[in-house]
Amino acid sequence: MLLVLAHVVAPVTDHRTGGRPAAILATLFAAAYTWFALVRHWSYRSGGYDLGIFDQAVRSYSEGRLPVSTIRDPNLILLGDHFHPILVVLAPLYRMFPMAETLLVAQALLFALSIFPITRLACTTVGRTIGLVVGASYGLSWGLLNAISFDFHEIAFAVPLLAFALTEFLSGRSGRAVAFAAPLVLVKEDLGLTVAVLGVLIALRPGSRRLGMITAAGGAIASLLSVFVIIPAFSAYGNYRYLGKGGLKAPEAALSGDLLSAGKLHLVLLLLLPTLFLAVRSPLVALLLPTLGWRLGSTYILYWIPTFHYDAVLMPILFCALIHSLVLLRPYLVGRRRRWARPTIGAALATTCLVLFSQAAAADGPGHRSEFTAAADRMVALVPDGATISTTDTIAPHLSSRTDVYLLRVNQPTEWTLAPYDDPQLKPRAADVVIRDGDLVLMHHEADPRHSPTPPRGS
């Protein structure tokens, strides 16, 4: 059995070609992703949840403070919610360009960067034409598009790290694979388990047993330390809020969901469909298990519906598994089979990709300028830097880089309030200034020492 596993995790190539077409394709996607994300944001289709939260987190780092967010919870250091210290690498860039757009551009470039190694490996192993089809299908995969359509998240770093790690692994460079995978433990607390599974695959390869075992142990230990030691130490609540007694959800609700419900089965099928189900031929699909495990084991529907950003980290795994599977199938594609196999697979990949693309969240388009967005821009410009303000979710990320923003629904007394005049959560108070522009109203409230805003922790 071990000999069979060692064979299927053997390197698929020991040389690199296709770098130029892969770089061109990645550049084109970088431009498209960036355009889409920025136009969407400028059309007020981004939100305080989650762009505003991460904007405030990176802003904190750029100012030399621990990451906090008045939008998320002013009493919570964000490292006590999720462990994502890798965000600190954006601080120097944010220092130069202190705006939410910096995060969106960074995510677009990171996603596009992941296209390069996947396309290059595909061109090297299965030919340039079908390699470019695989690369384009990956770039248009619904997991990446949903993430681009849902603001910014820390997993933007995980996508290229996984892409480079897995392509290096498939190319026989286990040491480099570990070097790319190791920073995943700084992206999010659960990704250490993904590193652990990669370590197991490396350990099955002749000559890499020790490296693989160290990697597997290191990844597992990193996740355990993050969940049970580091996060509780930063948390105002003294625990990991998504697990265990006193968490956001009881253990039975968080860990004993129905793994085989129709909705969850739909997610699994949807994940495998872009690869024409060929990915299951590769042992790399084992890397899906840590992320799918906690998602499918949950009863919280937002964790397993095929929306938001959760599926982005699975796309590099699936498409690297697809490339590996195509290589493993080559001995069976001889004679006539070989002549029709490549064009058939390429056409099927392209068709499936375009169908899923048309159904993805990105198919709604990035949005467009309107009277509301123009009025919102004018109102946002009137709010002074350093102020405290209550506003709606869609306006919050346009103010989070230079003010302390609270969502209107939390009813936090602030100096300013900006919202649609007919918002049911708008509660007028004694105000020095009331400005109306279109459907929006901006109020500057009288100072009241009894209602000073709660200062964020970590400042």
UniProtKB/TrEMBL annotation:
It holds the Pfam family DUF2079. InterPro entries: STSV1_Orf64. Signal peptide: none annotated. The chain crosses the membrane at residues 20-39, 103-122, 128-148, 155-172, 178-204, 216-239, 259-280, 287-306, 312-333. The keyword Transmembrane helix applies. Keywords: Membrane, Transmembrane, Transmembrane helix. The keyword Membrane applies. This is DUF2079 domain-containing protein.
